[in-house]
Amino acid sequence: MVATAIFRAADASDKCVEDPCKCQEKGDVCGSTFPEECKFPKDTLYSCVDKDMTPKEKMTCSTKGCVPTAGDDVCGSCLCPDGTPTCGSVFGPECKKDNLTLYTCSKVDALPSSPTKCAWGCDVKDGPDKCNTDCLCKNGDNVCGSVFPARCGYKSNALYKCSGALADPSAPDDCAWGCDVKAGPDMCNADCLCVDQDDVCGSDFPDKCGYKKDSLYKCTGKLADPSSPATCKWGCDIKPGSDVCNADCLCKDKDDVCGSQFPAKCGLKPNSLYKCSAALADPSSPAVCTKGCDVKAGPDKCNTDCQCKDKDDVCGSQFPAKCGLKPNSLYKCSAALADPS
After folding, report:
1. CA spacing 20 to 30 A to 182: which of 85, 108, 226, 296?
2. For the whole model, what pTM was predicted?
3. Cβ-defined contacts of 53-59 (< 8 Å, 24+)
4. What is the pLDDT of residues 131-167, one digit of tens each?
5. Number of domains comprising the chain
């Protein structure tokens, strides 16, 4: 743009002459287009609001100078660096381009045009710049939020739907037990969910699930949340079908039973005889068997090998050595099952 204007001279001829330091027309103009006597810096861009007005400084073109064009003059840093799409961040700060916008460049030194807003940022490349796709779907598969960079703002434990490549992930489904990244479609983690309708021990699940190992959980169906935990007093027993509470420390029937019949983990006294009210009842009312508890085919009993059979006197040699009686001594018996004395 040529920055010339005219003014009326104050002489007798009243002749109109041009003022070289005034605007010729409306638009932006480089300081270099004015004569040196105007003292406008060459690398400053001026704004002309109308013809014959004084140019107003708009900006300093700090990097590539001010470039005159057929239309508005511009800072050189605001022109296209080549003929490929260019991110706004490539242009100088004086250009006030949006860093998150991709501009069309038809050729070198062309004016950027057709701005496209990049929702996830503009990616500067060695070749054509592009809108960033790191936060967009790669295909039509469901995808975990953890797959995307943190700057995308997606929930890492949510599963997002993808309608196709470069679509925005949508309709997030919160995964209570985390989102599982797969080779194909991602899915919510099922490690903490029921496999089928069988009851299941809490110990069947990973520690991260937070289930009680010695509790038995109900399952209403596949992928249901385990519920209604029942505490297993003696531990939970994992089976091929439904798991069960461990019965190793419970009565098998109504027969009295020696404590020695139970595993040590049960904490029952081996030389005590326990009452059983029913199958799966807790053994109760222990009676201490001073000479040991005798396991029988039916109800167990306290051992009587070291006790009198009747009221007759008896030699110590008649009893087993375990009884600790003197073989050459005669013992009194006050009654059957009494202790020899």
Report:
1. 226
2. 0.49
3. 53/22, 53/23, 54/21, 54/22, 54/23, 55/3, 55/21, 55/22, 55/23, 55/29, 58/28, 59/94
4. 999 999 999 999 999 999 998 999 999 999 999 999 9
5. 6
